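Need the bound structure for magnesium ion, inputs here:
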Amino acid sequence: MLRALEQIRRMRGGAQSHLMRCDGGGYYVVKFQNNPQHTRVLVNELLGTRLAARLGLPTTPAAIISVSEDLIRLTPDLCMEMPRARIPCRAGLQFGSRYPGDPHRLTWLDFLPDKQLMEVENLHQFPGMLVFDKWTCNTNGRQTLFFREQQDGAEAESRYRAVMIDQGFCFNAGEWNFPDAPLRGLYARNRVYEGVTGRESFGPWIERLEKRITERVFDDLIGEIPPEWYDDDLDAVRRLAKQLYRRRTLVPELLLAARNTTRHPFPNWM
Ligand SMILES: Nc1ncnc2c1ncn2[C@@H]1O[C@H](COP(=O)(O)OP(=O)(O)O)[C@@H](O)[C@H]1O
Ligand SMILES: [Mg+2]
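Answer from helper R.:
Posting the output first, comments after.
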């Protein structure tokens, strides 16, 4: 667990997160328990990020961040802006997604134009992200961050790298059910799937899902989640884990359903 030391700024987005500097010198984008979406999105973030990392997908390191009553009192901007009120962020344990570097030296973007998108260093991981998003029924589409480190004095600029962020709507946000639909979970641009030539393109990811996600994995992960994030309803979390474990075998048919839509997300699938 880390401690938040200061708030840097408010981030965009429905959960009204804040960029914060934490002890140890790292910066984290912090989602609060009383975010306007649902307290459970913190569970989804932690569980989702850990599971994605287990599959070998690119994520930003996730952490549990403690934010004190004092810091909130001394920082008026640490609040939820609701239509008719400003509600202070709730103190206690929150979810943090590590900011990939020093905010002063790093270039990062939420979107890239198609041309630059094709040059992303790890584009081949997008099919793996889709396996993850189909499995977890991410009802918000895949969100990534593209970043590159500024290189002092170097003439050639380094290439962008994609990392997954925002696992908050996996398991259908606060609902913890799985309303599967063919277009769900796809990244907004088909170009990231140009390398897909058939079922076999997803094969290695599906194999990882079957081999690396055991029931034991869930036991360990659940133990890490602060109970206040799931309202002390351990049975509900266990049910969620059980469903996820069972759903692993559903992924191939969910991918096929996406393939057969008029959006044609996989232009090179023969
Ligand atoms: N680890 C991170 N590093 C840098 N920026 C981030 C990180 N996580 C989120 N962000 C930024 O904060 C915004 C909101 O985060 P996100 O997880 O998408 O929350 P929301 O649920 O509000 O959409 C993102 O659009 C992105 O720009
Ligand atoms: Mg988002």
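Comments: The pocket of adenosine-5'-diphosphate (ligand 1) is lined by residues 11-15, 17, 29, 60, 97-100, 108, 110, 143, 145, 165-166, 168 (CB under 6 Å). The chain has one domain: 2-259.
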